[in-house]
Amino acid sequence: MGGDTVYRFGAFELLKDRQLLFYAGTPVHVGSRALSILSLLVEKAGALVTREELIAAAWPTTIVDESNLKVNIAHLRRVLEKYDRRQSYITNVPVRGYRFTEPVRREHVDTITFRSVTPYMPLPSASQLIGRAKEVIAVCNGINKSGFLTIVGAGGVGKTSVAIAAAQCLADHFSDGISFVDLVTVNDSQFLASAIASELGIRSDSEDLLDAAIRSIKDQSKLLVLDNCEHLIPAVAAAAERLAAGLPNAKFLITSREPLRLLREQVLRIDPLEFPANGVETRDAATALSFSAVDLFVTRAAEASGYELVDSDLPTIIDICRRLDGIPLAIELAAARMDAYTPAKLLSLLGNRFDLLDRGTDKMPARHRALRATLEWSYGLLPAHEAAILRALAVYSGAFTVDDAVAVASAAGVPSSAALEGTVALMSKSLLSADSGEDALHYRLLDSTRAFAADRLLEDPLCNQVRHRHAEHICVLLERLQSDWEDDIAQVRVANSSGRIADVRSALTWAFGSDGSVVLGVRITVAAIPMWEHFSLLDESIAHLSRALAEGRAAGLTDIGAEVRLQLALASSLMHARGLTKEADGAWNLALSLADRSGEVECRLKAHWGRAVYDIHIGRPTDAAHRLHFFGELCRMLSDQSAAPDGERLLAAAEMYLGQLSAAKARLERLSTLYLTGKRMRHAHFQINRAVATRTTLAMVLWLTGESEKATELAENTVQEALASGHALSVCNVLSLTACPIALWSGRIDDAERYISLLQQQFERARLTLWAQSSRCLRSALMIQRGQQNGIGLLDQAISDLLVEGSAIRAPIYMSMLADGLARGGRVQEALAMIEAALARAAAQHERWCLPELLRVEAAIRLLQGTRRRAERLLLDAIDLGEEMGAVAWRLRAAEDLLALRPALRDDSHA
Fold it and tell me: What average pLDDT score do residues 619-648 get?
């Protein structure tokens, strides 16, 4: 080779005129645009080269966007760093351009001799692989062990990249090199043999090109990589089987959406990259970058635009990775747009992800220019019935079973038998993923695939028919589960996972849309009520219930049964989510009226039970008790007595507040025994987990009646049971009504802190406004117990807010805690006014359960005023009242104070 100008930097040698780059005598493969950019940078090493100059050098006759330059610069950096990681050859000069930073020697030589290279088709260039180390190792081990391995995975997941990386690692094991056959361009199986022979360097006039190839390289040690085989599976399987049998020293690496299904074949499935799960907070860069999807995004964004990660961008970048399902191709395409968008803007654009991602670079194969192109290519290979199934499956938002698939496929004109086979075929082609559940195999579409299929479904004349069938199917599933929310909880969790909830949302959106069915929408809403209650999705249920009621009335529907069920659920959700508002009060009154009109006993039960809950919360336990006795009479009208325990449990709570502790305790212990015996019971009709609610009230009654150790243990166990159920409403109930107060009154400060923190997490997560103020009261009381004087003002405000919102029950006991804190802080007159207000409110509400404690606190305040005899009388009254009610805990507290007071009283008598 003579008359060449060579630019040398490090171990690299660049022949500018020939557009060739070598590293230590070995060819380095980069694109012509990148080489033109490198040539100009090297020529002007050390000097600034403007962006305009670089674009003119690489695209002399074409007007291009600056992003093209950034992409090629990033590619150049990756290639150079792949060979020499010790140096950073190209630096960015913000806004202005780039600079080549390493020393360059320019030489003119007559002849250049390079190390001989085996004559095989070079591997395609691949960017630095991120997050695939284990997969590459697995491929290498598999090739060494079996000699025939197929990498299987969804489009864009990085099968080719892993194959290239593994081939590079294995290069030294094959003396005759590696042959890489990209089958993307082979659209017909009749051209397969010629493509393979051509890449192997075989030129023959033989009609049997595979035979010619086998004879030509029979004894060679070679790795043959067959990439992108899914559209030619039968032909590739036959060809690979024949080549493997005829080439004993060769080994085979395949990439495909589905296996070749050969006996000799080992299959390795590639999953998407890892990203933080929903609900997992990742606030620091080091932790976030340990997830390969995030690492890939940040790396590619930096290469494309010089982006530097800041902690404030982490949540947005993590969300981008989630939305792109951890698919490397999608992530890389998105990251490349960071030159034009901030992370937040990019995230907002992902609603139209394919419009954004379709802007690929001209150096990428057509099918890789965007994720849509990848999916289009794969979709075009499907038989008509499989394509129809895929379109229909786009209606499912999460996991689904084969029965679900059959249901919607039938609306797309695919018979059941074909739907079964087609679903399996789609899984084998990696268009569906599958997981083995406890009860059945569950499938799902990756979000990207689902979005693509949904677009295709919109173009399908059968689209509305499929959506209608989906809505009917979801409705039937929910209706089947109406009575199983406690009996078959595992089934319910499967059928109503987050994905299934999304299916309900989707079905309702269609049903109440212009092409939908209001009748079906109302029916689905009614059927979904237990699901929303079980998962404490109260704000969502309010929106759906309100819409169903409004749409049903506007359409003139006359189904009073459906209307009353919607109204009952709305009243309950409003109460728990919005508090004891006029809106909730009106909703309960309307629910009672509709229930009476309907004549359905079960609806009347729900209405009276719900109104009783409301009455208890607003401080009317007497009214609640009367209503619950009527509830019992209604239950006796039913042959099914399954609702009776709910009324019994709530009646026990009313009895507790009224000071009828013995009756409440007997009732609760009887109910608790039913659950301990494992007797089969229907689902609690009224949101709160039945067993948890019963034990919640029982633990409080046990503590009041003097069984403190048993109460403490039961409260803790009930908290854990509620947490295990995942039902936020039940968790808030036991924490606020029992576990937290018992811990505070027992002086177990650390337990109280733990419970109160957990309560706050739960009501904030589930937006349960009903428990917000009680949580504030309990936390402020804890602060007072810790000696933090600012707790007094906070408790005062929390009680005020509690009363404004109408939640009067337990206000007297909170007021007594405030009075005690005021007295301990020396504010005796304020304390006296507060305890007198507490006693007045307790009397007005007939809330007798805490009267002994209120009298004890008043006695302590009177004692501070110096009126010892009056304090003594108050303590004696507290002891007598505690004895009468069976409130042993309050009686003992009063007795301890009296015992402490007696020496002073004796001194008074001697004076």
Answer: 86
